[in-house]
Amino acid sequence: MAMKRTVLTSVVLLLLATPAFAVFPCDELWGERNAVYAEAGYCFKTAKAIRAFGNAGCRFDRLEDVPLSDRDRAKVHEIEREERRNGCRS
After folding, report:
1. What's the number of domains the chain is made of?
2. Could you report the per-residue pLDDT of 37-86, keeping only the tens digit for each?
3. 57 in any annotated domain
4. Which residues contact 8 (CB under 8 A, 6 or more apart)?
5. Contacts within 8 Å (CB) and 24+ apart, 62-71
6. In whole angstroms, what is the distance from residue 6 CA to residue 59 CA?
7. Does some domain include residue 7?
8. Is 17 a member of any domain?
């Protein structure tokens, strides 16, 4: 019986690692990208982002107005590339 559970657990873990089941990386990337904007003072519009980051102390209503350092801008661009590669964003 223990052997069957081990095999079943392995199969479930394998399925969860496949792209069809791998939603978590998209959520993680979304969080990383928006954390950069939150730290820089962006005022979120969606309920999901407001729940996750809030808008306390936000200063910028448009993403284009958010002053990002070159390092943060590069990080956001890399995250966006990874999101596209994983089919996360439409």
Report:
1. 1
2. 999 999 999 999 999 999 999 999 999 999 999 999 999 999 999 999 99
3. yes
4. none
5. 63/37, 66/37, 66/40, 66/41, 66/42, 67/40, 68/36, 68/40
6. 52
7. no
8. no
